[in-house]
Amino acid sequence: MDRNTTPQDTAHDDGDAARTRDRNVLARTAAHLYERYAHVVDRETVDRVLQESYDELEHTAAVKTFLTASAGNFADSKLRSLAIARGAIEARNPRVLFVDDANAGRSQMAASLVLKHTEGRITARSAGLAPAGSIYDTAVRAMAEVGVNLEHTYPKPLAADIHRAAQLVITFACADRVERVDGIEYRDWDIPSLEGSGIEDVRRVRDDLDSRVRELIAELGPDAES
């Protein structure tokens, strides 16, 4: 380090470099998203949705390592949901949205179990009313035990476009705080929050969720089962 350079200067330079790198990645991501959704929205809308997604996740994320990739995935979900709502994409698969407070445990586990058991034949997403900074470690551990990797998942806010594109919204102890949208079915699953829970309690919740998810899949149609 130069004798005239302070640790604060170095940190500032590193921060500037990270922001520049993120801007470059976001610009490339926006170009790819626009190629995919140009028949639905203009480039300005793509840029806005992507930047909003980045800002929302940056505000809550405890770890920033995968922030640009997570923002790209979140923006893709929003734009696809918008395309479905506008009738530009025909969505043949059932669409389920799981919502709780933190999007760090129950809702993430439920959505991942749907995807695991149906191999994508049901579209399952999750969101939180007040997203946590990261997925609970115990949830990551418990899901890894059944072959589901949540290492790179991230808590997300409840986006209006994703909400409107759902056919079924399942809430966890927050039904009274989720706005009702005409044409969407709402249910509430009485499963306690995993915040501060030990691994044994999380395993019990995982198994409870697995039973409920299997019943839901059977209800939504045999074509959805793997």
Q: State the distance separating the first and last CA atoms.
A: 58 Å
State the domain count.
2
Please report the number of helical segments: 7
Highest-level CATH class of the largest domain: Alpha Beta
Helix content: 40-55%
What would you give as the CATH superfamily of the largest domain?
Response regulator
CATH architectural category of the largest domain: 3-Layer(aba) Sandwich
How would a crystallographer describe the biggest sheet?
A: 4 strands, parallel
Q: Can I get a quick summary?
A:
The protein is of the alpha/beta class.
Question: Helices and strands in order, then pairings?
Answer:
Elements: H1 7-37, H2 43-60, H3 67-85, E1 95-100, H4 106-118, E2 123-128, H5 137-144, H6 160-165, E3 168-171, E4 185-188, H7 199-220
Parallel strand pairs: 1-2, 1-3, 3-4
Question: What this model shows, in words?
Answer:
- The chain is an alpha/beta fold.
- The protein has seven helices and four strands, in the order αααβαβααββα.
- The protein has helices at 7-37, 43-60, 67-85, 106-118, 137-144, 160-165, 199-220; strands spanning 95-100, 123-128, 168-171, 185-188.
- A four-stranded parallel β-sheet has the order 2-1-3-4.
- It is globular, with a radius of gyration of 19 Å.
